[in-house]
Design a protein that fits this description.
heterodimer, A: mainly beta, six-stranded mixed beta sheet, five-stranded antiparallel beta sheet, 0% helix, 56% strand, B: mainly beta, globular
């Protein structure tokens, strides 16, 4: 079966750091993705991990542990524009299906 | 270059009708995926097409069908519409490497 879990909502303060966790149980694995989705807009790609470890890209970092079925997205120096839903997604073996979690709605307050 | 384009942007239908949604991928992308997104939820996988062949199918009834054309554009068809089919339908394309999906702005379907 396919199951991706992430918190429903999180609130953080502008300038702070926030970590959004994701755990997954999938029948196959060929990469984990994080997407950002602002209200009323389409998801946009943030990061991709296929091997264990940390990938850093500017204010955003993503970590993967395949043995634990665990990933997190780390957002530093939070800005108001970071208020959005963050979607954890797993691509299955063969790469023909990417499954999304329900998303974590992040609220950044001043 | 143009991104993924979807049409129409909004659509209102009544129960029992059918609907066709259209998607044009980014130039050079041969893979198209369709997703259904209900408000407050993540996108649910419906289909993936690559080189005009169906390569993946999600847990949706046979009322949902799709196809991909020689120019790699795609159509999603839904027959016998139900109220529960009301959602945002997203199309995404990806390149040969297939690492990431590029989404269109979606078609908001309302079934009354």
């Amino acid at each position: 079966g396919q199951n991706i879990d992430q918190p429903t909502e999180m609130t953080a303060t502008e300038g702070a750091i926030v970590q959004i966790n994701c755990t997954y149980q999938t029948s196959g694995f060929n990469g984990l993705f994080w997407y950002q989705q602002h209200a009323g807009e389409a998801p946009t790609f943030l990061s991709y991990n296929v091997l264990d470890g940390l990938e850093e890209k500017g204010r955003f970092s993503s970590f993967l542990s395949r043995s634990k079925g665990y990933s997190y997205l780390l957002l530093k120096e939070l800005q108001m524009k970071d208020s959005a839903s963050y979607l954890c997604a797993v691509r299955d073996t063969g790469g023909f299906k990417t499954i999304f979690g329900a998303g974590t709605r992040l609220f950044v307050k001043a | 270059d143009a991104g993924v384009t979807q049409s129409p942007t909004h659509l209102i239908k009544t129960r029992g009708q059918h609907v066709t949604l259209r998607c044009s991928p980014i130039s050079g992308h041969k893979s198209v995926s369709w997703y259904q997104q209900v408000l407050g939820q993540g996108p649910q996988f419906i289909f993936q097409y690559y080189e005009k062949e169906e390569r993946g199918r999600g847990n949706f009834p046979d009322r949902f069908s799709a196809r991909q054309f020689p120019n790699y554009s795609s159509e999603l068809n839904v027959n016998a519409l139900l109220l529960g089919d009301s959602a945002l339908y997203l199309c995404a394309s990806s390149g040969t490497g297939g690492e990431k999906l590029f989404f269109g702005s979606g078609t908001q379907l309302s079934v009354l």
